[in-house]
């Protein structure tokens, strides 16, 4: 079950976020500005992923979610999809040992049934190898779309009801949270999106009910420790109310 704060917990978010989620956007525009093919933007984006995982570890952030490929990204040209799939596989193959050595626990969220067997095996191997690690939890959203995720959870709950294992009244927000791909993980405290776009693009729609959003103009390949610190400092200056009253209110 995701731990959603209640309205009685309105608080200044002065402390470090427990869970940072990032929409890594702008690889294509980063490349275009340099007269490079989009594929090189994606390749540089992988370097930014490495820097960000290290930064999150150094900053002792417990959970980091990275949006790597959306269910809507299948509408891109085949060449670009092939590049992105190749990069994902190479990232897993090259970085898995390091991640494991650095005590990183890797989780992958998104539709798993329909992805090609080699990718699926790599993902399963990665999650299995790092399952017991106790450092950073790195959640990779791959072939992920929030509407699809919520639909799969609703379908599973409906099947449980049809089979007589649950009553309709057992379906609570907590039970639905638990049935999502992110079941058991805390909701993001802060969602960062690079590239200047101010939209959520089907990412963590349920989980971001009370998340603070930080939009940065920089393109993803330029992201790293400093920008993460900058986004966190914006987050820390926010007052989180969860539907309650401002902290300083004496009423
Ligand atoms: C993000 O960069 C990477 C993915 C969506 C996979 P984009 O490829 O969306 O880059 P822009 O938005 O076209 O610049
Ligand atoms: C969101 O970026 C998906 C990822 C970063 C993986 P997009 O570039 O696909 O989003 P839109 O199309 O601009 O909304
Ligand atoms: Mg984009």
Would you mind describing this structure in some detail?
This protein has one domain (16-145, 187-236): Decaprenyl diphosphate synthase-like (Undecaprenyl pyrophosphate synthetase). Helices cover 41% and strands 15% of the residues. The chain is built from 7 helices and 8 strands, in the order ββααβαβαβααββαβ. It has helices spanning 27-33, 38-58, 78-101, 117-130, 146-162, 173-179, 225-236; strands at residues 11-12, 19-23, 63-70, 105-109, 137-144, 190-193, 212-215, 239-240. The structure holds 3-methylbut-3-enyl trihydrogen diphosphate (IPE) (2 copies) and magnesium ion. One 3-methylbut-3-enyl trihydrogen diphosphate (IPE) binds at residues 23-25, 67-70, 73, 197, 199, 201.
Give me the secondary-structure topology:
Layout: E1 11-12, E2 19-23, H1 27-33, H2 38-58, E3 63-70, H3 78-101, E4 105-109, H4 117-130, E5 137-144, H5 146-162, H6 173-179, E6 190-193, E7 212-215, H7 225-236, E8 239-240
Parallel strand pairs: 2-3, 2-6, 3-5, 4-5, 6-7
Antiparallel strand pairs: 1-8
One 3-methylbut-3-enyl trihydrogen diphosphate is lined by residues 23-25, 67-70, 73, 197, 199, 201.
Give me the number of helical elements: 7
Write down the CATH class.
Alpha Beta
Question: Which ligands appear in the coordinates?
Answer: 3-methylbut-3-enyl trihydrogen diphosphate, magnesium ion
Fraction of residues in H or I helices: 40-55%
CATH superfamily: Decaprenyl diphosphate synthase-like
SS class: alpha/beta
Mean pLDDT: 94
User: How many DSSP-defined strands?
Assistant: 8
CATH architecture verdict? 3-Layer(aba) Sandwich
SSE pattern, N- to C-terminal: EEHHEHEHEHHEEHE
Tell me the distance between the termini: 33 Å
Q: What does the largest sheet look like?
A: 6 strands, parallel
Taking pLDDT < 50 over at least 5 consecutive residues as the criterion, the unreliable ranges are 1-8
Oligomer: single chain
Question: Could you tell me the strand content as a percent range?
Answer: 15-25%
Cross-sheet strand order for the largest sheet: 4-5-3-2-6-7
Radius of gyration: 19 Å
Quote the CATH topology. Undecaprenyl pyrophosphate synthetase
Total domains: 1
> What is the 3D shape?
globular
